[in-house]
Each structure stands twice: as C-alpha cells, then as structure tokens.
Design goal:
Layout (H helix, E strand, L loop, with lengths): L17 H8 L7 H12 L6 E2 L10 E3 L4 E6 L18 H24 L3 E6 H6 L1 H13 L5
Parallel strand pairs: 3-4
Antiparallel strand pairs: 1-2, 2-3
Helix pairs in contact: 2-5
Length: 151
C-alpha cells in the first residue's frame, strides 16, 4: 500500500503509529455503519418519510420525522461515550481524548435540550444496543411516532 500523506491542522496530536492516521481518515460524520443499520431496520419495518441530517431542526439530528417532530440520533458507542457498554478510552494522548470525548457528550446534551425546547421528541439509539436488538430500537421510534405531538 502506498504511503498516504495527511495535512495536520494542529487539532489532533500526531499518532505514534502511522496506521492510526489511515484508520482515522476513514471515519465519517454521516452515513456511518450504525446510521445505515438503523435506517435499514426502519425501512424493513415500513417506516419511511424521514429526513437525514435535517439542518432546520436544532442539533441537525441524524434522522428527523419533521411532521411528527421526532428526532433520532444514532450514536457510536466510542465517539459518544455510551453509558451502556462504557467503551475504553485510548491510553495514549489521554488528555486530548478525554477532552474530545467529553466535549462530544456535552454537545449531545445541548442538542437534546434545544430540540426538546423546540417541541421535538428525542430518541438516542446507541450502536451497542442497535447491534444487540435492532427491533427494540425501531419500536422506540414507532412509539414516539404514534404519540401526540408535544406542546
């Protein structure tokens, strides 16, 4: 494999192992594996009519049922510090990773609060729970869609 060169902008420390840079460059912000799995599960159940990364809603939810005001965030366990499986944090560059992952958790909380304040129901689907039982997560969305809108 040809060596890849990455432009460093100073936001992240230079990894000790160059393979880490290759792996990190493949991580996406949208259309992630967990998001695609959730959308496939919704589709298999016949649930359609949602918008992806809906920018007009506070926090730009991964999946938004605009008419019903239901927002779904599909969180990767590592990146959002899952409270269920509690993934280990990296041992190298500990300060950087602690600050980064803590900021992600704080941002998620701000997004949920802003959506609720705007009258949206918010569902957080965790990667680990989605892998174990996708139908349980789909039922959570179905319940939110059948409830009357919040005032």
């Amino acid at each position: 494999m040809a060596e890849r060169k990455f432009i460093r902008d100073g936001r992240a420390p230079v990894p000790l192992d160059p393979r880490i840079s290759v792996n990190m460059s493949r991580i996406r912000a949208k259309n992630t594996g967990p998001e695609l799995a959730m959308r496939a599960a919704l589709s298999a159940t016949g649930i359609r009519g949602y918008r992806l990364q809906y920018a007009k809603a506070p926090g730009k939810p991964d999946i938004a049922f605009v008419g019903r005001k239901v927002a779904v965030f599909v969180h990767g366990s590592f990146w959002h510090s899952c409270p269920h499986c509690q993934p280990q944090r990296p041992k190298s560059n500990k300060k950087f990773w602690t600050e980064k992952l803590d900021r992600n958790v704080e941002r998620d909380l701000r997004k949920r609060r802003a959506l609720r304040k705007a009258g949206w129901r918010v569902i957080t689907v965790w990667e680990c729970r989605l892998k174990k039982n996708p139908q349980t997560e789909v039922r959570r969305v179905e319940r939110a869609l059948t409830q009357p809108p919040l005032l």
